[in-house]
Amino acid sequence: MSEKNYIEGEQILLIDSKKRRYLIELKAGGEFHTHVGAVLHDDLIGSADGSSLKSNRGGVFSTVRPTMSDFVLKMPRGAQVIYPKDLGPILMLADLFPGAQVFESGVGSGALSMTMLRAGANITGYEIREDFAERAKKNVKAALGEKALDRYDVLIRDAYEGIEEKDFDRMVLDLPEPWSVVPHAKTALRSGGIILAYTPSIVQAAKFKEALEGNGFALIETMEVMNRTWHIEGQAVRPDHRMVAHTAFLTHARLLST
Ligand code: SAH
Q: What residue owns the CA closest to ligand 1's atom 26?
């Protein structure tokens, strides 16, 4: 979104004095009720990204357009999402680019989908649950607008059973048995293409690697991303006490022609 001012229909993040965050969709005449009174959507529509406003009972809110990370953390979920700490690295490791033909499975809540669509990918997604597929499409539309759906084709299909489409540049997997997709990836991915799997358990990563080796994939690497935030307050400068110690392993490889 490149407009300077908020427009009706877009999603805005409100932040209160206690740093609590609320994601709202702007509707003409709409009201957002908080513990410190109502915020009128009409006061926000037309005002600048980054502006502050008061509720009718004097509560002060900062407002900003949500970043992709904000949206992923706040959007409605069906399945458990991939978090921003892994979404960013996935774009690099799978080397996503504008116009890339990408196979994704499962699509879950659409967090990974919207990240890749925003990087310019065209996605064919296989998802076994119809309710999750619908949720993912709604989330993608809310985050990126209706036009992004032209590049997002979600099919209700089981990725373990086979892949009909061919010539994908990239395949990105977040489902329980990525190794069951590897024999199909061998024919669905073009030579030189990249496959990546997100697996919470290292046992899954090891099984995936074994399948990759048996199916013509090379340049295989497994890694994890650790993200430690810091507390910086005057002389008190130290890592935060709490961190998310684990989400998942990222395993990626390239298909070589035989
Ligand atoms: N990456 C997604 C979350 C995916 S959760 C996000 O960031 O939002 C895993 C998804 O895989 C679930 O929606 C589940 O229904 C789907 N799934 C599991 N097995 C599958 C299969 N064999 N084929 C297609 N989808 C599958």
A: 106
Give the sheet arrangement for strand 152-156, strand by strand.
152-156, 122-127, 101-105, 168-173, 189-199, 249-255, 217-223
Q: Is the per-residue pLDDT at 64 higher than 80?
A: yes
3-state secondary structure at position 242: coil
pLDDT bucket at 1, cuts 50 / 70 / 90: low
Domain with CATH 3.40.50.150 in the chain: 70-255
**Gap from CA of 79 to ligand 1 centroid (Å):** 7
- To which residue do tokens 């080796």 refer? 213
Identify the architecture of domain 11-66 in CATH. Answer: Roll (3.10)
Confirm or reject: Cβ of 128 under 6 Å from ligand 1: yes
Q: What is the pLDDT of residues 168-219, one digit of tens each?
A: 999 999 999 999 999 999 999 999 999 999 999 999 999 999 999 999 999 9
Going by CA atoms, what residue is nearest to atom 21 of ligand 1? Answer: 158
Distance (Å, whole) CA 83 – CA 59: 31
pTM of the model: 0.95
Rounded to whole angstroms, the Cα distance separating 167 from 193 reads 9
Q: For position 78, what pLDDT does the model report? A: 86
Q: Does domain 70-255 have CATH number 3.20.20.80?
A: no
Q: Quote the ligand 1 centre to 53 CA distance (angstroms).
A: 40
Q: Which of 102, 107, 180 to mutate to test the pocket of ligand 1 (most atoms within 8 A of CB)?
A: 107
Domain with CATH 3.10.330.20 in the chain: 11-66
- Ligand 1 pocket, 106 CB below 6 A? yes
